[in-house]
């Protein structure tokens, strides 16, 4: 049985299951249409009740009613669980009070707090230190200077976000940010200080004040170090490395969808491990690898967003993909790297904040032509300026020059960047750095309220996987770690309350069919599938870069929609022809289904926005439209014909019924 498409009063909606674009105001009268061929399980909606805050709207969204399911009701009390290793009935099922998916700043900070009230499993895809947090160079923005103010930080955030930010969310984050920084310092995080003994505050693009707390140019790594040390010392937290999250485990409690844990694949032992938990926090990061060039680590394949979408969570603002203007362009280095990087090396925003100037290859400064703020303009403006230069001049990179600053200052502020460039023959104290835009951050994600809550009961989100309303149409530099810290902390109390009131029994593990590893296929077929999947991944990334990049058009987006649909169908046909079964799991295949899911959400969201705002720039609608200053909402909807990527694995019997 499907679920109804939920429309909020005074909305514009695209019920993709029905394949028509419908505009509804007040009574949701239908007036127009656009064919939507392959996102069959979502509804897009633009909320236009501007007087109602994001957080209040979300509170209403969290009560979305759906048809009841045939799955077992939630009964009997869950006994208190506080042991380190957790209760388990067999080696493949583990029980915890809290399951945290992701070991970046959001997941670790949350785990440390909820561990005071119960057992915690931190589930991470690779090593515990491998996350987007580790690669965050610039710092954390917070109002810590007497001449700065919360109002100023709010204004900078809202301007950078192209006025699509939720003001209440922005105020909460900017107000609570300084306390979150102080907590990190108390936990042992070491940030740079000036000669006066106070924190050294940097300035980055889009900021009107110096407010960036940093540890040289490796801030994320330092924060992660401090948090990981605390987590590993906590007896109530168990870290599960090399556990890839496959799908959330959901059931129905009346009209509510409830999350009761997650299935994972131990990528070292190839065993499927089921985690049953009272509360689940998604802190799994973004989806940078839907593009061929990204600053994100290899683990950023959109797993959390895709899992949440399949679990009927509301998704928002997926068209707003931030391309960092300045990733290191290997083609411009004196000595080329011998291996292709898995992720582009980031040249932090702080280089421009410290006076770095952008030039084309003729050493002509170009940013003043695009914006009066020049190199200090927000990222979307700078990225489009660079993109325009590259296309007009048919060049592959531009130059970022900081060499006019004192050598000692450069080396003290950017030691990691200096060392990386020097090993390829480039001395940044004497020569400019070759840079090019790269996919960097997803401003959209799983829609969350002010406490990180989602419309799925027991499921909370924090960090890049979440869409809280803070970033709007473009994220302000160094607001990402800030948002992760604030929302990880805000999700704690409601999580504890939900955990204490939860009712569940130990038979819950048997409510869902178990995924399994395709051992029976044999090594030859498995290797062929993996190789084919890697090629398909490259093809998807190429489509996204060519048609859904920094500058878009309706024709390009529709071409991407068609090509992605064809590619996904071809890939799935190949899998099943080779003997793959719908409940089989493998790392490469599961990552691929998540990449397909996220790519389709981005394309469909972009097609739904008929204006240019922030990170979404389309030549067919090149101007801002005040009437469209609204978030894009993707609601669950009855699937007409789902793909393997769009269905939870434990519901794959339904997928088989849909096949011709």
From TrEMBL:
Name of this chain's protein: L-aspartate oxidase
Biological process annotations from GO: NAD+ biosynthetic process
Chain's gene name: LOC107415443
EC number from the UniProt entry: 1.4.3.16
Catalysed reactions, semicolon-separated: L-aspartate + O2 = iminosuccinate + H2O2
Domain FAD-dependent oxidoreductase 2 FAD-binding: 97-481
One Pfam family of this chain: Succ_DH_flav_C
Keywords: FAD, Flavoprotein, Oxidoreductase, Pyridine nucleotide biosynthesis
Residues of the Fumarate reductase/succinate dehydrogenase flavoprotein-like C-terminal domain: 537-623
Cofactor list: FAD
GO annotations of cellular component type: chloroplast
Function, in words: Catalyzes the oxidation of L-aspartate to iminoaspartate.
Family designation: Belongs to the FAD-dependent oxidoreductase 2 family. NadB subfamily.
Biological classification of the source: Eukaryota, Viridiplantae, Streptophyta, Embryophyta, Tracheophyta
Involved pathway(s): Cofactor biosynthesis; NAD(+) biosynthesis; iminoaspartate from L-aspartate (oxidase route): step 1/1
UniProt-annotated location(s): Plastid, Chloroplast
EC top class named in words: oxidoreductase
One GO MF term: L-aspartate oxidase activity
């Amino acid at each position: 049985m499907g679920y109804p498409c939920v429309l909020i009063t005074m909305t514009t909606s695209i019920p993709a299951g029905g394949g028509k674009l419908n505009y509804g105001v007040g009574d949701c009268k239908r007036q127009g249409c656009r064919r939507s061929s392959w996102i069959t399980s979502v509804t897009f909606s633009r909320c236009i009740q501007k007087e109602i805050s994001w957080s209040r709207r979300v509170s209403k969204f969290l009560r979305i009613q759906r048809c009841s399911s045939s799955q077992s009701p939630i009964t009997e009390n869950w006994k208190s669980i506080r042991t380190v290793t957790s209760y388990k009935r067999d080696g493949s099922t583990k029980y915890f009070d809290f399951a945290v998916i992701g070991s970046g700043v959001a997941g670790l900070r949350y785990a440390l707090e909820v561990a005071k009230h119960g057992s915690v499993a931190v589930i991470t895809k690779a090593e515990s230190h491998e996350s987007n947090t580790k690669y965050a160079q610039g710092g954390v923005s917070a109002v810590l200077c007497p001449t700065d103010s919360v109002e100023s930080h709010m204004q900078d955030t809202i301007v950078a976000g192209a006025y699509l930010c939720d003001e209440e969310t922005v105020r909460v984050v900017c107000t609570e940010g300084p306390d979150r920084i102080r907590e990190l310092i108390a936990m042992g995080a070491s940030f740079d200080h000036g000669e006066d003994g106070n924190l050294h505050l940097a300035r980055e693009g889009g900021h009107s004040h110096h407010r960036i707390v940093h540890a040289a140019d490796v801030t994320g790594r330092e924060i992660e170090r401090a948090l990981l040390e605390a987590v590993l010392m906590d007896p109530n937290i168990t870290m599960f490395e090399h556990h890839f999250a496959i799908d959330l485990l959901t059931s129905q409690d009346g009209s509510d969808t409830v999350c009761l844990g997650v299935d994972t694949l131990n990528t070292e032992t190839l065993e499927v491990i089921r985690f049953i938990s009272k509360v689940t926090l998604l802190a799994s990061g973004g989806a940078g690898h839907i593009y061929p060039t990204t600053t994100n680590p290899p683990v950023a394949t959109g797993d959390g967003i895709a899992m949440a979408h399949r679990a009927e969570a509301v998704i928002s603002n997926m068209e707003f993909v931030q391309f960092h203007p300045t990733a290191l362009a290997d083609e411009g280095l004196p000595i080329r790297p011998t291996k292709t990087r898995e992720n582009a090396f980031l040249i932090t925003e702080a280089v421009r904040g410290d006076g770095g100037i952008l030039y084309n290859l003729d050493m002509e400064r170009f940013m003043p032509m695009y914006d009066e703020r020049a190199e200090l303009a927000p990222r979307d403006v700078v990225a489009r300026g660079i993109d325009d230069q590259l296309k007009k001049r048919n060049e592959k990179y531009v130059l970022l020059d900081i060499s006019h600053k004192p050598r000692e200052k450069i080396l003290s502020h950017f030691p990691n960047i200096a060392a990386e460039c020097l090993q390829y023959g480039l001395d940044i104290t004497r020569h400019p750095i070759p840079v090019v835009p790269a996919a960097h951050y997803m401003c959209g994600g799983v829609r969350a309220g002010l406490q990180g809550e989602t419309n799925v009961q027991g499921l909370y989100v924090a960090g890049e996987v979440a869409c809280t309303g803070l970033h709007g149409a473009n994220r302000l530099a160094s607001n990402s770690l800030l948002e992760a810290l604030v929302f990880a902390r805000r999700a704690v109390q409601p999580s504890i309350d939900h955990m204490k009131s939860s009712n569940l029994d130990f038979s819950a593990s048997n409510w869902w069919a178990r995924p399994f590893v395709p051992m029976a296929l044999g090594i030859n077929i498995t290797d062929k599938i993996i190789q084919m999947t890697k090629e398909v991944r490259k093809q998807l990334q190429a489509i996204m870069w060519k048609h859904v990049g920094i500058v878009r058009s309706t024709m390009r987006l529709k071409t991407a929609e068609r090509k992605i649909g064809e590619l996904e169908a071809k890939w799935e046909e190949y899998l099943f022809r080779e003997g793959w079964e719908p409940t089989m799991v493998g790392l490469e295949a599961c990552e691929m289904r998540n990449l397909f899911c996220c790519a389709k959400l981005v394309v469909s969201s972009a097609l739904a926005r008929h204006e240019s705002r922030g990170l979404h720039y389309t030549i067919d609608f090149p101007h801002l439209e005040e009437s469209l200053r609204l978030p894009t909402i993707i609601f669950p909807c009855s699937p007409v014909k789902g793909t393997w990527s769009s269905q939870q694995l434990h519901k794959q019997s339904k997928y088989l019924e849909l096949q011709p």
